[in-house]
Amino acid sequence: MEVLYFAWVRERIGLPRERVETEAATVADLVAELRAREERYEAAFADLSALRVALDQELAEFDAPLEGVREVAFFPPMTGG
Amino acid sequence: MRISVQTAPFDLGEEANAFAAGVAGAGAVVTFTGVVRDLPGGGLQAMEIEHYPGMTEKAIGDIAQQAAGRWSLADVLVIHRYGRLAPGAPIMMVATAAPHRKDAFEAAEYLMDYLKSRAPFWKKELTAEGADWVAAKDADEDALHRW
């Protein structure tokens, strides 16, 4: 699946997007896999309460299943308007 | 309904006039414009706005549809810019048209409340000291509860 990062999540990880091969069942499982990769991922995902997630461009919860999802995005709370 | 996510500046007067002309029989038109605010004491060099292409347009469209389902609206306009903006530059505008002002005002406030915390934009303030992401406020999230 495609994993996208925005704002300071993108800056901490150092990438706007990447292709991730995963068997993760939920968003939380995917986060655990990413955190285990490298320090920069650990730094980005250290505090999940400071993060939001969208699945196929719809806001979702961290316990949401990933089955059938093509695009996951992680970002801080939005500051539009 | 028109939704535009763009880097280009917009002319508030022209947009408001064109919007009002398109809903000549409506009775009430409300517009709101958000402008890049300087820091207390000055010093803001620019604001950089990032967004999530695709989701942004979809999220704003959903918010506008919700508003249209809730109030009696003749039309809705949302323009939101991204990229690098100077202090004082317009960031975004909403316009609502309705038969009566209460619907137009309330729908405009609803759109603003939801655009603030449910449309995927992120603001960064650039100063001589560096760059800081603008943190979302609890008050912005709380504002959604009144709807």
From TrEMBL, chain A:
InterPro entries recorded: Beta-grasp_dom_sf, MOCS2A, Mopterin_synth/thiamin_S_b, ThiS/MoaD-like
Keyword set, alphabetical order: Nucleotide-binding
Protein name: Molybdopterin synthase sulfur carrier subunit
SUPFAM superfamilies named in the record: MoaD/ThiS
UniProt cross-references to PANTHER family, sorted A to Z: MOLYBDOPTERIN SYNTHASE SULFUR CARRIER SUBUNIT (PTHR33359)
Pfam families (UniProt xref): ThiS
GO CC list: molybdopterin adenylyltransferase complex
GO biological process terms, semicolon-separated: Mo-molybdopterin cofactor biosynthetic process
NCBIfam families linked to this entry: moaD (TIGR01682)
Single GO term (MF): nucleotide binding
Protein family per UniProt: Belongs to the MoaD family.
Gene name tied to this protein: moaD
Top-level taxon in the UniProt lineage: Bacteria
CDD domains to which the protein is assigned, alphabetical: Ubl_MoaD
Nucleotide-binding keyword on record: yes
From TrEMBL, chain B:
Catalytic activity of the protein: 2 [molybdopterin-synthase sulfur-carrier protein]-C-terminal-Gly-aminoethanethioate + cyclic pyranopterin phosphate + H2O = molybdopterin + 2 [molybdopterin-synthase sulfur-carrier protein]-C-terminal Gly-Gly + 2 H(+)
Matching Gene3D superfamilies: Molybdopterin biosynthesis MoaE subunit
Keywords: Molybdenum cofactor biosynthesis
Catalytic EC class: transferase
Pfam family, one: MoaE
Pathway: Cofactor biosynthesis; molybdopterin biosynthesis
Protein family per UniProt: Belongs to the MoaE family.
Molecular function in Gene Ontology: molybdopterin synthase activity
SUPFAM superfamilies: Molybdopterin synthase subunit MoaE
UniProt name for this protein: Molybdopterin synthase catalytic subunit
Function comment: Converts molybdopterin precursor Z into molybdopterin. This requires the incorporation of two sulfur atoms into precursor Z to generate a dithiolene group. The sulfur is provided by MoaD.
EC number: 2.8.1.12
Subunit text: Heterotetramer of 2 MoaD subunits and 2 MoaE subunits. Also stable as homodimer. The enzyme changes between these two forms during catalysis.
InterPro entries membership: MoaE_sf (IPR036563), Mopterin_biosynth_MoaE (IPR003448)
Organism: Antarcticimicrobium luteum
GO biological process entries: Mo-molybdopterin cofactor biosynthetic process
Source taxonomy: Bacteria, Pseudomonadati, Pseudomonadota, Alphaproteobacteria, Rhodobacterales
Database matches in PANTHER family: MOLYBDOPTERIN SYNTHASE RELATED (PTHR23404)
